[in-house]
Design goal:
By secondary structure, the protein is an alpha/beta fold. It is built from 15 helices and 15 strands. A seven-stranded mixed beta sheet has the order 2-10-9-8-7-3-4, with helices on both faces. Strands 11-12-15-14 form a four-stranded antiparallel beta sheet, covered by helices on one side. A two-stranded parallel ribbon has the order 1-13.
């Protein structure tokens, strides 16, 4: 069927739209910050949820064989990765999984490698769980972020380094790391006994000309030294159903993770989340292909708009995700001034770059997973604010 991504849907109980006052201090902003989309999920997903709701009984549930098959088939078809049922585990979300893994595979005072500017929950989990950040800051060269491998090797050789949180595709800079990048990272980590925790939640959202490589699919050696985190939540806009897929080929690592999950009594899962995942992976591919075409056009629209009308703000072209990194440093504002400018002058609620750690200062992240009319109004507000304030 043909989906209408131009349709504007009034959100209900939405963190993105419903807590603007708490986040930005005003209701008078267009929220373009948190990473969920303003699109209805695929019809097969809503149909499956409705059918399950009509059953009328919502007692304790379990993960059926068809649930596992849907995951196995999806990763095989979309990512050419053959996984076994025995590798598949669960989490109510990727961020909770990061915390479970941190607690299970490291001790207080140990260090975890990240590549800033990076998804801010990485940094929060590490600090809140009593570990320390080892930052292998990405370098912006000719409008594209690259990895400083010399620095990465130095960080990985630290005796306290136990884990590496790999973000691929990278949030917020939009890189889809190449096979060569991943192989180099993987070899350094194996050499230094650092486990790779690969957050690949945006792996289905890849633009033309790029290809996502599942880190664990590269080799058996890499699979045995990694834990892969994924979910249908970003792909199909199902974040509120809190159902993520944790794939652990290493039997010892699997048992360690399972022990942590069992101790927290979090093994069963959400009945509607399980149903939605299965329906999305089995019947959502057509919707996804249409979504990718729409997002591609949103990227083109945004890049042309900034280039033609707000040239002081540079767009870091995304290779994946529906999140775009904006370089606002030419506006000449410090981080707090930039935040205030976007909220009070432009009346647009973006996510502040400094919250993503080192290298994020002077940047803003915008979510383009919305109808183009909303994107258009947001960009026009920024343009007007820049012009009126002669920045």
């Amino acid at each position: 069927m043909k989906y209408n991504f131009d349709k504007v849907v009034k959100r209900v109980q939405s963190e993105k739209w419903g807590v603007k006052k708490e986040i930005f201090g005003t209701e008078d902003v267009i929220p373009m910050w948190v990473a969920d989309m303003d699109f209805e999920s695929p019809k097969p997903v809503t149909d499956a949820i409705i059918k399950r709701a009509e059953h009328g009984l919502f007692g304790y549930t379990f993960k059926s064989s068809s649930y596992y098959e849907s995951i196995i088939n999806w990763f095989n078809k979309r990512h050419n990765w053959e996984i076994n049922k025995d590798w598949i585990n669960y989490s109510p979300g990727v961020v909770p999984a990061l915390s479970f893994i941190t607690l299970s595979f490291s001790q207080p005072g140990d260090k975890i490698i990240v590549q800033s500017p990076v998804y801010r929950r990485f940094l929060e989990v590490i600090m809140e769980d009593g570990r320390q950040i080892l930052d292998n800051e990405l370098k912006l060269k000719n409008g594209k972020y690259v990895i400083d491998f010399d620095d990465f090797e130095k960080k990985a050789s630290n005796s306290k380094a136990k884990l590496f949180f790999l973000c691929n595709p990278h949030n917020p800079v939009g890189r889809v790391w190449t096979r060569e990048d991943l192989i180099r990272l993987g070899r350094i980590c194996i050499k230094n006994n650092v486990i790779i925790v690969a957050d690949e939640i945006h792996s289905d959202l890849i633009y033309k000309g790029y290809k996502h490589i599942v880190f664990a699919s590269i080799s058996e050696e890499f699979a045995q030294n990694s834990i892969t985190l994924n979910a249908p939540s970003k792909t199909f806009n199902l974040a509120g159903l809190q159902t993520s897929v944790i794939i652990i080929p290493n039997k010892k690592y699997y048992e360690i993770y399972q022990s942590e999950l069992s101790s927290l009594k979090l093994t069963r899962g959400n009945v509607f989340g399980l149903v939605a995942l299965e329906a999305a992976y089995n019947f959502g591919e057509d919707w996804l292909e249409q979504l990718l075409e729409y997002l591609e056009e949103n990227v083109k629209y945004l890049m042309s708009f900034f280039e033609e009308k707000i040239s002081k703000i540079k767009v870091i072209k995304p290779e994946g995700t529906y999140l775009v990194w904006l370089d606002c440093r030419q506006l000449g504002l410090n981080d707090l001034e930039l935040r205030k400018f976007m909220i009070e002058k432009a009346k647009v609620g973006l996510l502040d770059g400094y919250k993503f750690g080192q290298g994020g200062e002077g940047f803003q992240r915008i979510n383009i997973g919305c109808p183009r009319i909303i994107l258009k109004e947001s960009l026009e507000r920024i343009e007007k604010a820049v012009n009126e304030n002669d920045i």
